[in-house]
């Protein structure tokens, strides 16, 4: 292995681990910087690395991904016959120290060669992304990032899909992909993180921007004149969005008229259409507040959000 050890992770507090994580670009940042992550964008990574982002919080997907990691590793060893060993360290690229790797483990093949091991969980709706030899783009870049940091020639990625389908795949080192990815990462670190110059936010930044800027300043801010291009773009897309929704609803109405009382329909060789009754129960908050006003007040939690509108003159 060519990488150097930044820190041993055994015994680190969450805050210490987070501090080391923010000192460079990790595998999960690679896809975001390259613009292929569905979870975050370059702006989100910048805010995290400059210590301006929200504290790292787990969620259900992350919790179960972590909880099931050992299950995935155990199943991989059982099915492949290969050995996976833990590697409780954060690694650094030998020449570019801000490129980091925190591996799920290392795998040793039948010839004694060492590679990267990654364990994943995925929901059933993403099954198509794993068909055949396919690996989701974000995970492919994560693995190539790790191969770059470690210098290894191969990796295995194992995934549990929908809780009941297991797959594993071998991924070879792709030097051309690594060169392109490394160039993007170095540009991002130099021209954004070190330069304290944030990249342009994208739609994926919406939730983060709402957390960063909760509002409160009442005075009107005068934006620069070139912001008008953004306003025009917003209004154009807003109009297109409304038109697209109307056309979609119109097409759906015509299909429903054709179906009548039938809950399913099909067009041979093309698709299946379902229009099924859905029963749901909703809590009657108005009636509850009338009957139990004190109790309702006790369990009512205020929520503040910011509504974005554009009104042209």
From TrEMBL:
Pfam families: YqaJ. InterPro entries: Lambda-type_endonuclease, NF-kappa-B_Signaling_Reg, PDDEXK-like_dom_sf, Restrct_endonuc-II-like, YqaJ_viral_recombinase. Residues 16-153 form the YqaJ viral recombinase domain. Residues 230-257 form a coiled coil. Keywords: Coiled coil, Hydrolase. This is Lambda-exonuclease family protein. It comes from Anoxynatronum sibiricum.
